[in-house]
Specification:
By secondary structure, this protein is α+β, with helices and mostly antiparallel strands. Helix content is about 50%, strand content about 10%.
Length: about 400
């Protein structure tokens, strides 16, 4: 456990670090993990305010995760609760007060709120102590609720949360609320860009790009974990990959409606025009001011490349549209990229994009049956997709399917 001085120093450090995280999903995971560490909590959840409701948006549980395979994520359902005094989190959001409960199973009957024990009954987990506090924006408006569960002492025994930690955790919560507000603004700007692309391509929806990004990050974490990539590098890459993956098809804004909305197969001429969306998408990020710009260009350019070299656009300079010198065919067209010539982020998004396309309704098809989708994904190993990533995909299919439920069409 951290000393008071260490906690204060940690909070000051975290204040600077969490402002660097741009993606809202990555940020919530980071905030919850750090808040739990500050007070040595076994578990916790974040609720985000949406209108007059709270959306259960993220959760962690050390006890349950230790029972899972290495690099696996906790699977959970998304739900909403009303902002009123009947639930613990609803009460915190409604009143702005902090609640510290030594044992949720011994709540006084005179209190307006009750503890919902259904999750405990389903999971076999036993919630005891609970600390819930509001997350506020820079204007002091409540943006969500952070709930910490089962404080632990140095011997990992469950204890009530200490009241002396309240000022520190509330100070951290204020920084976290402002960071969430900024991340929500970033996500909103990206989704507005997606809506612009959706005007041209009805398949390019906010739900689709959120799913593709979520799948790509799940696979990246498993890939990086198997290689013992340092956690700080994983954190940074998850953030930029999550946002870059959402913009993988943004170049379609420059493609004709007659091609994008055609319900039948494309002609050779139309296919050549469609190839340009990958190049145009990368070109949109030609002025690279950050690692996000670089990652977005890489994803846009490479997410249609195939492991066996039959994808597009190949070794092309997106800013000139010409083949890279030394990588031209005899006819002047670019040589294809194959294998690890395709950047990792491109390989990840390629797999995520195809999986979601097969699983979803399109103007030209109904969603495929799940078993058929998985058979096709396996058959693409070594041809369309990196075989190692296909293996990781199947090892994490339950987590991927759970992520799909968070972003329904």
């Amino acid at each position: 456990m951290l000393s008071e001085k260490q906690k204060l120093g940690k909070i000051m450090q975290l204040g600077a670090e969490i402002t660097e995280v741009k993606d809202i999903d990555v940020l919530m995971e980071r905030i919850l993990r750090e808040a739990r560490m500050l007070v040595n909590a076994d578990a916790g959840s974040i609720y985000i305010k949406e209108g007059n409701k709270l959306k259960f948006s993220y959760t962690q549980n050390d006890t349950l995760e230790k029972q899972m395979s290495s690099h696996k994520k906790l699977i959970y359902s998304i739900f909403t609760i009303p902002i009123d005094n009947r639930s613990i989190s609803g009460y915190v959001a409604n009143t702005g007060k902090t609640i510290n409960i030594p044992d949720v199973y011994k709540l006084s009957s005179i209190l307006p709120y009750t503890f919902n024990r259904s999750y405990d009954d389903i999971s076999g987990y036993r919630t005891r102590s609970l600390l819930a506090f509001p997350l506020k924006t820079s204007r002091g408006e409540i943006i969500g609720v952070l709930q910490l569960i089962n404080g632990k002492n140095v011997r990992d025994r469950i204890i009530p949360f200490l009241k002396k930690d309240h000022p520190l955790i509330l100070y951290f919560a204020n920084m976290a609320g402002v960071a969430i507000e900024r991340a929500q603004m970033t996500r909103a700007m990206i989704l507005r860009t997606i809506k612009m692309a959706e005007l041209r391509d009805p398949n390019e929806t906010g739900a689709h790009v959120n799913r593709v990004a979520a799948y790509a990050v799940i696979m990246y974490e498993a890939w990086a974990g198997s290689r013992n990539v340092p956690q700080n590098i994983i954190e940074k890459n998850r953030d930029v990959l999550r946002m870059a993956a959402m913009l993988h098809d943004v170049g379609k804004v420059a493609i004709s409606d007659a091609i994008l909305k055609k319900p039948a197969g494309l002609t050779d001429h139309e296919r050549k025009a469609m190839v340009q969306h990958a190049i145009i998408g990368a070109r949109l990020f030609s002025e690279q001011y950050s690692e996000f710009d670089e990652a977005a260009a890489v994803v846009a350019l490479n997410h249609h490349e195939k492991w066996d070299g039959t994808g597009y656009p190949g070794h092309v300079n997106p800013y000139t549209g010409h083949p890279i010198q030394g990588y031209e065919k005899s006819d002047g067209t670019p040589l294809p990229k194959r294998g690890e010539e395709i950047p990792l982020f491109g390989r990840l998004v390629a797999l995520a994009d195809v999986f979601d396309a097969l699983s979803s309704r399109r103007v030209y098809k109904e969603p495929w049956e799940e078993g058929h989708v998985l058979e096709r994904m396996e058959s693409y190993s070594g041809s369309h997709f990196d075989p190692e990533l296909v293996k990781i995909f199947f090892e994490n299919i339950d987590t991927i399917q759970n992520a799909a439920q968070r972003y329904p069409d």
